Amino acid sequence: MFNELTMLGKVTLSLGLIGTCLCALGQPAPRLRDLAKARRFNIGSAMPVSNLRQNIDDGKYAALASSEFNLLELENDLKPPAIWVGPHEYHFTDVDFIVGGPGQRGWAQEHGMKLRGHVLVYARDEGYTLPQWLKSSGASMSKDEASELLHDYIHALVGRYRGKVAMWDVANEAIDDRPNQNPFNLRNSFWFRKLGPEFLVMAFKWAHEADPKAELYYNEYGVEGGGPKAQHMLELAKWLKQQGAPITGLGLQYHIDWKTSIAPGDGHYQLIDEIHKLRLAYMITELDVAVPVQKLPAGDPNRGLIPADPEDLNLQAKTYAAVFQMALTSRNCHGINIWGLTDRHSWIPGFSQGRNGLATLFDKSYLPKPALQAVEDVLKRK
Ligand code: G3I
Predict the structure, then answer these.
(1) pLDDT digits (tens, 9 = 90+) for 177-221
(2) Strand runs (DSSP E) across 84-204, as ranges?
(3) 81: CA distance to ligand 1 center in Å?
(4) Residue nearest atom 28 in ligand 1 by C-alpha distance
């Protein structure tokens, strides 16, 4: 079933891109995932199950996803509110389509794509982070009850997909942006209130028990160029290792903008050196490079898709190239995941109230942008 639907998309997309992809010899140019494979590098994109399952845009979405990327991360479908529908009740149907239920192959395997699981513990309370039933019933919950529930959830989810998910964000955004008195400046989250900082150690240990081969990450934003939050993250990572947490590495989200400067020796490179000193890997987990756009009202189909200054797309390309150059020249980078398949599927316009957009490698029509060419040029360098 996957092959017929996606094949239609591949044909449609290839015909649409043929003029773009043909190199001088008339042979199709290598795609992003081919170039990444040659560098033994994981290059992924964050996607909703629904866009793949519904094979949107006559298969163009699925065709671009499977032809350009070798790693797939579900944007929201593996978050606790999507899966954890009751204390011991889990909704796996949507994710099974991509990952494959027990003994089954999913869409990702059918298309030769590794999977990155996001996220077991979204360690903050506001927004789409905790299941609603837990938000309402958790206050009266005892420490032992909270611990047992989290243990059973992690084992149920990670265990179901054992051997099929290459890496997991075990915990996400646990560190506060505002200074507080908590260890490592941790947020005053539900899990912190119930279990103390040890909830992080438990989550890593239980994930490892459920799938000993999966890489396990702590994921964070606002740390990429160094600074106080990055220092809290490094101290937390060191403590986790001291507590015996089987942590593989740190996820650096990299939600940046077209002005972000990244150069050898700067705070970005220093952070990676600090991570390497802790004998940890890192991944760039949610890369997007936002660009100012023409302000349009919510609901306008072009909101977030018309640059305020087209030249900014060339500056964006330079920023993307600088991120990939840094990642590919560091010893401990396990890959890069782009947050959104195309500009039309990016969270940035909504998040920025229409001020920014155009943050990904492909435009609203699934066509390559200058940023893609810049990334491919870096991948081609030896
Ligand atoms: O699924 C519910 C639906 O049932 C409900 O009717 C609807 C209206 O309330 O909400 C739907 O949930 C939405 C969810 O995405 C799934 O589509 C939430 O409202 C919406 O807030 C949520 O936004 C996601 C956001 O994380 C919050 O979880 C964005 O799409 C997603 O791009 C963003 O991604 C995060 C990473 O997980 C962590 N790092 C930061 C990054 C950007 O915020």
Answers:
(1) 999 999 999 999 999 999 999 999 999 999 999 999 999 999 999
(2) 84-86, 89-90, 114-122, 167-172
(3) 10
(4) 128
